[in-house]
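ok so dumb question maybe but i'm new to this and my supervisor (M.) told me to 'just get the structure for 5'-deoxynucleotidase' and walked off. so i did the thing. is this what she meant?? sequence i used:
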Amino acid sequence: MPRTPPQVVSPNTNNFVQNWSLDAVLKSIPTTTIPSPSSPLAFLHIIERLKTTPREGWRRHGILQGESISDHMYRMSVITMLCPPEHKVDKDRCIKLAIVHDMAEALVGDITPPDNIEKAEKHRRELESMQYIVNKLLKPISEVIATDFMGLWMEYEAGKTPEAVFVKDVDRFELICQTIEYERKYEAKKDLKEFLHVRDGIKNGFVQKWAEDALREREAFWKNAGIESIVP
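this is what came out, is it supposed to look like this??
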């Protein structure tokens, strides 16, 4: 008899978010993700999901072909390279933080405020997922590599080092850029100002300036569309 394929647990559905468990997600993933001490394939198969999982906030506005989680992380990595040299941070570490910071979403999905998941529960899910990725997939290859990945994720979550503070600012700034770009793409038919509140959390002065420039650009766009200003 033909083998019945496993039921795929799809991120970014209400049922997935409300009834999430790491075990259920892992059972839905093909057995090609079995860890091996000689190959990173299992790890790579897991993080491939970052390429195919869309950022959920846009979908709620009818943008169904929007960016993936990895799209967002890639541009964040590029933005960290634009940090002014006088701002004393380790750029290489910032790039690593940007690449790793949302890695747990490969298994958790993109949880957004309308999902009504408590912050502590979101952190618990992401920590459990990172522990699986690190301990089951990376440690068999190299304990040093596993420790490095977990350290980067924990550093970003704590948000205490200059590098983590900067990358969190970059996360917010990248969202502002994407908001403006989608409004342009849809020719002012979508008002996405709800995402712009993140500017209030930006701490570095030069990133604040970048955000202000972006918001002025956005305001000019909406004026050209016949609306004086929709900046909140």
